[in-house]
What we know:
Elements: E1 5-16, E2 19-30, E3 34-38, H1 45-52, E4 60-65, E5 68-69, H2 74-79, E6 81-84, H3 96-106, H4 111-125, H5 140-151, E7 158-162, H6 170-185, E8 189-194, E9 205-210, E10 213-218, H7 220-226, H8 232-240
Parallel strand pairs: 3-8, 3-9, 6-7, 7-8
Antiparallel strand pairs: 1-2, 1-4, 4-5, 9-10
Helix pairs in contact: 3-4, 5-6
Organism: Taibaiella soli
Keywords: ATP-binding, Nucleotide-binding
Pfam families: ABC_tran
Amino acid sequence: xxxxxxxxxxxxxxxxxxxxxxxxxxxxxxxxxxxxxxxxxxxxxxxxxxxxxxxxxxxxxxxxxxxxxxxxxxxxxxxxxxxxxxxxxxxxxxxxxxxxxxxxxxxxxxxxxxxxxxxxxxxxxxxxxxxxxxxxxxxxxxxxxxxxxxxxxxxxxxxxxxxxxxxxxxxxxxxxxxxxxxxxxxxxxxxxxxxxxxxxxxxxxxxxxxxxxxxxxxxxxxxxxxxxxxxxxxxxxxxxxxxxxxx
Length: 247
């Protein structure tokens, strides 16, 4: 692991009884990288992410996140990351500003920081007219963009996004990825899970999980070349049916 590495795993494994949800996964993620963690539903993506976020203790193997150990330093990990869950993570019965204030406090920001960053979030999202509206009244795409903004309001080292664009329209998906690019440009490492193979094209590197195992890890272009594929959908299809890497 070098000084540019912010996530490092070695044979990280999670078992639930006889079932192995994540099986000896090994990879590294670099600072400022957009790292895609791809796979079909049930492939083990969320299980792996929960271990890296300090929400689930691994069964075996090792990993560090932002320099902290996933077994012994879970509280330090939580202070240095942002997290956006697969299910909408803000409080729908609070307003936009109330959610910003609440989560800013959870992340340890001062009242002054919350005010400054809250104003910045509202301005960037164009939510001036919605700032005092209940979040539950907003369209899903708006909620997701707000949830992402809140997840990075404390300037974390890494932000974990679990299926962040599920159920939103194509235009909003594109806008959401523009926000991801901006965060990465500002030095935030983005770890994103998705089952949309076209979103793999937006990542610097991707890993593809099949049945709890990482079957491939490289840039999208390199993977398409290796599998002689025109799209990431084709790459995933070859992996899912057990094809070996093309020579």
